[in-house]
Structures are given as C-alpha cells and as structure tokens.
Design goal:
Blueprint lengths: L2 H34 L1
Length: about 35
C-alpha cells in the first residue's frame, strides 16, 4: 500500500468516525432534551 493510499484511507476513516460521533452526540442531546422537558 502506498503512502498516498494510506493517507486517503486514514482521512476517510477519520471523517467517518467524526460523522458517527456527531450523530451520536446529536441523538444524545435530543434524548436529554426530551427527558428533562
């Protein structure tokens, strides 16, 4: 595997992890808002 392919793969992995984390955070915030209301 070339370093360019490795770089693009790690970038994709980081962005997908950020997306998953953001989705979980939004779901958690909405759930918290519903519980406290």
């Amino acid at each position: 595997m070339t370093s360019a392919a490795l770089a693009s793969f790690s970038l994709t992995a980081i962005y997908s992890a950020m997306g998953v984390y953001l989705f979980a955070f939004i779901a958690f915030t909405l759930d918290l808002a519903k519980r406290s209301a």
